[in-house]
Design brief:
Number of domains: 1
CATH superfamily: Jelly Rolls
Number of strands: 13
Structural class: alpha+beta
Distance between the termini: 31 Å
Oligomer: single chain
Largest sheet: 7 strands, antiparallel
Order of helices and strands: EHEEHHEEEEEEEEEEH
């Protein structure tokens, strides 16, 4: 089962980030094909500065920041991420109440690389084509979970779904981040 928790106290300027992703998303790279395509884009300096003013010790605990997009009526199948571990996904815009983060069972994976990315040999995601969904999680506030556990997205809505993903150092697990959050040591 996917371990996760919600962070209702983590707020962002939704108008700022909605405008930003809508202006930039057509230039992002992608994984997958057809309605299984997942888009990813790098943040600009303004976004990184914003996060420095949101997370305590961001430079010490955050290792990667990416914008992600799942188009309307698209599905991202069961996979684990390359180069990412525990993450906080911050909803920017889309119909999050009617789309879901999907938790999948562990099965035998296959390795995949995106034809649209310039990746080194070590960077690969794993796809779990034989996995069944264990849980569908609808969230409208930021969520923390581990991308090394099979997961996906179902966006059977009429709106594209955009998130800002914050990845943490490999030694920080969901429980560690939850403890920092609850003690007031994660957010400024």
């Amino acid at each position: 089962m996917l371990e996760y928790f919600l962070l209702p106290d983590l707020k962002i300027d939704k108008e700022l980030f909605s405008n930003k992703v809508k202006e930039q998303c057509e230039s992002w790279g992608h994984f997958g094909t057809g309605r299984f395509k997942f888009y990813s884009g790098h943040p600009d300096d303004e976004t990184l500065d914003y996060l420095d003013n949101t997370f305590k010790n961001a430079g010490d605990i955050v290792t990667k920041v990416l914008f992600n997009r799942v188009k309307a009526n698209n599905i991202i199948g069961p996979h684990t991420d390359y180069g990412r571990g525990c993450t906080i996904n911050i909803p920017i815009c889309g119909d999050f109440a009617n789309s879901s983060l999907d938790a999948y069972e562990w099965t035998k994976p296959i390795s995949v690389m995106s034809p649209d990315q310039d990746l080194s040999v070590e960077e690969e995601s794993r796809f779990f084509p034989h996995s069944e969904i264990e849980q569908q999680i609808n969230y409208t506030t930021p969520i923390c979970f581990d991308t090394r556990v099979p997961h996906g997205v179902t966006n059977q809505t009429k709106e594209d779904r955009f998130i800002l993903g914050i990845t943490f150092k490999d030694d920080l697990r969901v429980g560690h981040i939850k403890e920092l959050y609850e003690k007031g040591e994660l957010l400024i």
